[in-house]
């Protein structure tokens, strides 16, 4: 079955540690996105990538980094520079503008 | 002015009621429009695209008014299973030619027995 897979579903991190969230898709979509959602808030764009080996900062890129070495994969690293990393992280992909985007099940990151 | 604005609700309606959600957007160059549904602690799921001519999918009807930069979603004969947060989404091309989705904060709907 085609889809987007995020792992892990829940992640706990100690302050000062970097952590990488995985996002894999087998939909053959060119574009991939990372969003952050805080309780009672909308989705905010962290980074996006339209093609392999290229990515752009979104509205809240500070403290995050990404790579796009393969079409199927778009991992997000939350660095120790991110001041408030506890949130729900959502990865999405899209192929054509008329079709919107499809999301993975998300990763809940908690800094302890 | 916020890019995509929605009434946050919550909207508490009885089963069988008709409920309407409204959304306004600020970027007049926006290309595509969507409604998403998000259940509690889950990922958003695409509910329907929105076209200028209006479109219907069962009990759901979406409308777009480009002149007023306004989008709506109508749910008829509400079911308990319709309880969720409904997100208005606007897609546009940036100056660099990249395609971006901008989400509203969502309107929470609770359908009451």
Oligomer state of the chains in this structure: heterodimer
Total helical elements of chain A: 0
Task: State the order of secondary-structure elements of chain B, H for helix, E for strand.
Answer: EEEEEEEEEEE
Ends apart, CA distance between termini of chain B: 37 Å
Strand content of chain B: over 45%
- Percent in strands of chain A: over 45%
> Helix count of chain B?
0
Helix content of chain B: under 10%
General description of the model:
The complex is a heterodimer of chains A (112) and B (113). Chain A has 112 residues and is mainly β. Chain A has strands at 4-7, 10-13, 19-25, 31-37, 43-51, 54-57, 64-66, 76-78, 87-94, 102-103, 107-111. In chain A, the strands form 2 sheets. In chain A, strands 2, 4, 5, 6, 9, 10 and 11 form a 7-stranded mixed β-sheet that branches. In chain A, strand 5 (43-51) and strand 6 form a beta hairpin. Chain A is globular. With 113 residues, chain B is an all-beta fold. Helices cover 0% and strands 57% of the residues of chain B. Chain B has strands spanning 4-6, 11-14, 19-25, 32-38, 44-50, 55-57, 60-65, 70-75, 84-93, 99-103, 107-112. In chain B, the strands form 2 sheets. In chain B, strands 2, 4, 5, 9, 10 and 11 form a 6-stranded mixed β-sheet that branches. The mean pLDDT of chain B is 91.
List keywords for this structure.
heterodimer, A: 112 residues, mainly beta, seven-stranded mixed beta sheet, four-stranded antiparallel beta sheet, globular, B: 113 residues, six-stranded mixed beta sheet, five-stranded antiparallel beta sheet, 11 strands, 0% helix, 57% strand
């Amino acid at each position: 079955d085609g889809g987007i897979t995020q792992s892990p579903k829940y992640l706990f991190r100690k302050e000062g540690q970097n952590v990488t969230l995985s996002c894999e898709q087998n939909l053959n979509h060119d574009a991939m996105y990372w969003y952050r959602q805080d309780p009672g808030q909308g989705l905010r764009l962290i980074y996006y990538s339209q093609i392999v080996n290229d990515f752009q900062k979104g509205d809240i890129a500070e403290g995050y980094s990404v790579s796009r070495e393969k079409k199927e994969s778009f991992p997000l690293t939350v660095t120790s520079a991110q001041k408030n990393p506890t949130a729900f992280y959502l990865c999405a992909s899209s192929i054509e503008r008329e079709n919107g985007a499809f999301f993975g099940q998300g990763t809940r990151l908690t800094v302890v | 002015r916020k890019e995509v604005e929605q009434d946050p609700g919550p909207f508490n309606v009885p089963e069988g009621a008709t409920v309407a959600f409204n959304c306004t957007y600020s970027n007049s160059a926006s290309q595509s429009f969507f409604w998403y549904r998000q259940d509690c602690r889950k990922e958003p799921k695409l509910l329907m695209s929105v076209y200028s001519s209006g479109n219907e999918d069962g009990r759901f009807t979406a409308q777009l008014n480009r002149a007023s930069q306004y989008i709506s979603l109508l749910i008829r004969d509400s079911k308990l299973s319709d309880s969720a947060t409904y997100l208005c989404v606007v897609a546009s091309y940036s100056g660099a030619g990249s395609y971006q989705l901008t989400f509203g904060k969502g309107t929470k709907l609770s359908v009451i027995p």
